[in-house]
Amino acid sequence: MSTSTKTKAAVTNSGTPIADKVTETLHQSVDTLSEHAATAEEKLRHTASASAETMGEKQQQVKQYWDQSAVGKYTKENPVATAGIAFAAGMLLTTLLRRK
Fold first, then answer.
1. Which residues, in sequence order, are CB contacts of 97 under 8 Å at separation 6+?
2. Which phi-psi region, left, alpha or beta, contains residue 58 (left: φ > 0; alpha: ψ -120 to 50)?
3. pLDDT at residue 12 tops 70
4. How confident is the model over 31-63, as pLDDT tens digits?
5. CA atoms of 93 and 91, how far apart (whole Å)
6. Contact, 11 vs 23, CB < 8 A?
7. Within a 10 A sphere around the Cβ of 23, how many other Cβ atoms?
8. Which of 33, 49, 69, 100 has its CA 20 to 30 A from that of 15?
9. At what angle do helices 70-77 and 17-68 cross, to 10 degrees?
C-alpha cells in the first residue's frame, strides 16, 4: 500500500485537479480489485485443498470396499478370466451400439 501513497503524492503535484482526481480514483479501483482478487484466490486455494483431501479419503474408502468385495477378490484370484470377461463385455456393447 506504500505505492498508493507515493502515487497520490506524485498525482497531487501534477497541477491538473480533474486528471489528478481521475487518476486517484483509478488507482483506488485497481487497489480494490487487487484486494478482491487476492481474497478470491485464497478462497479458491482453500477449497481446492479441502476437495483434494476429501477425494483422497473417498479413494481410500472405495479401495477398501473393493478389496473386501467378492468381485475384487475374484479379479485378484483370476486376472486372465477377468480380462476375458471385460473383453467379451466390450465386444457385446460395441455390437449393440453399432446396430442403432
1. none
2. alpha
3. no
4. 999 999 999 999 999 999 999 999 999 999 999
5. 5
6. yes
7. 17
8. 33
9. 70
Are 78 and 84 spatial neighbours (Cβ–Cβ below 8 Å)? no
**Rounded to an integer, what distance in angstroms lies between the CA atom of residue 63 and that of residue 97?**
31
Cell of 52: 483434494
Residue with cell 460395441: 94
Identify the burial level of 7 via C-beta atoms within 10 angstroms of its C-beta, where 0-12 means exposed, 13-18 middle and 19 or more buried: middle
Cell of 87: 473383453
For residues 89 and 30, what is the distance between their CA atoms, to the nearest angstrom?
A: 59
- C-alpha dihedral sign at 48, 50, 53, 54: negative
Retrieve residue 19's grid coordinates: 486528471
